[in-house]
Amino acid sequence: MIAGVKRLGTKLIHDVAHLSYGDRLKRLGLTRLDRRRDRSDLVEAYKIINRVYNVQSETVSEFDQTA
């Protein structure tokens, strides 16, 4: 749903309306929603692993830091 709104919104910009969705995003300096979600997940995982958050160890799976 949100991705569809973003797709439609980028078509409303006259200078890029003729481009493909991927090209419109590149021209406008935007990223795809799925990539933003992946990046956000990685940032949150990094913060948990590096104890930026005070997360109880029982709430998270064990993580092998030797790998």
Describe the protein.
The model has no long low-confidence stretch (mean pLDDT 84). The termini are far apart. This protein is mainly alpha-helical and 67 residues long. It contains three helices and no strands. The longest helix has 17 residues, at 33-49. It has two domains: 1-30, no CATH class; 32-67, no CATH class.
How many DSSP H or I helices? Answer: 3
Give the end-to-end Cα distance, rounded to a whole number of Å. 38 Å
Strand content: under 5%
Low-confidence stretches: none
Shape field: elongated
Q: Mean pLDDT across all residues, rounded?
A: 84
Helix content: 40-55%
Major sheet, described briefly?
none
N-to-C order of helices and strands: HHH
**Tally of separate domains:** 2
Number of DSSP E strands = 0
Classify the secondary structure makeup into a structural class.
Answer: mainly alpha
Radius of gyration: 18 Å
List keywords for this structure.
single chain, 67 residues, mainly alpha, 3 helices, 0% strand, elongated
Give a quick summary of the entry.
The chain is an all-alpha fold. It is built from 3 helices and no strands. 52% of the residues lie in helices and 0% in strands.
Question: Which SSEs are present, and which pair or pack?
Answer:
Blueprint: H1 2-11, H2 21-28, H3 33-49
